[in-house]
Design goal:
Elements lengths: L2 H20 L1 H6 L4 H25 L2 H14 L3 E5 L2 E2 L8 H4 L9 E2 L6 E4 L2
Parallel strand pairs: 1-4
Antiparallel strand pairs: 1-2, 3-4
The structure holds zinc ion.
Zinc ion (ZN) binds next to loops.
C-alpha cells in the first residue's frame, strides 16, 4: 500500500477515536466510576494526540491540509471504496478503475467528492 495512504488511514482512525473519547455520550456508555474514567480518558486522549502528532509530522503538508479541509466538510478525510462505490458520497466508480488489478499503490481521490480513497478487495 502507498505509505501516505497508509498514514492517512491511521490518521483517520486516530481522529475517530479522539472524537469518541471526547464525546460525553461515549464516556457515559463506559461502565466505570466517574473519577477513574476522567483519568483514564485524559491519559488516552494524550496518548492518541501524541500518536496523531507523529503521523502528522510524517505527512506532506499539502496532503495534511487537504485532509483537514475534507474533515471539516465531511467529518472524514479518507473513505473506503466498497464494491466500487465511494463510502463518502456513494458515487459509483468507473468500471475501468474498479477492475484494475493493482489498487492502493498510489494516492487516489474520489472524482465526485474529492475525498482520499482506499480500495477494499
Ligand atoms: Zn466520493
Amino acid at each position: 500500500m502507498d505509505p501516505i495512504l497508509e498514514m492517512l488511514i491511521a490518521l483517520e482512525s486516530l481522529d475517530a477515536e479522539l472524537e469518541d473519547f471526547e464525546s460525553e455520550e461515549y464516556r457515559n456508555s463506559i461502565n466505570i466510576t466517574q473519577s477513574a474514567s476522567d483519568e483514564v480518558f485524559s491519559q488516552q486522549i494524550d496518548k492518541l494526540k501524541e500518536l496523531r502528532e507523529e503521523v502528522v509530522r510524517s505527512l506532506p503538508i499539502a496532503i495534511y491540509k487537504r485532509y483537514q479541509r475534507l474533515r471539516e466538510k465531511y467529518k472524514r478525510g479518507v473513505a473506503p471504496v466498497v464494491n466500487g462505490i465511494c463510502a463518502n458520497c456513494f458515487m459509483e466508480f468507473p468500471s475501468a478503475l474498479v477492475s484494475r488489478p493493482v489498487k492502493n499503490k498510489s494516492l487516489e481521490t474520489c472524482p465526485n467528492c474529492g475525498i482520499y480513497v482506499y480500495w477494499t478487495k
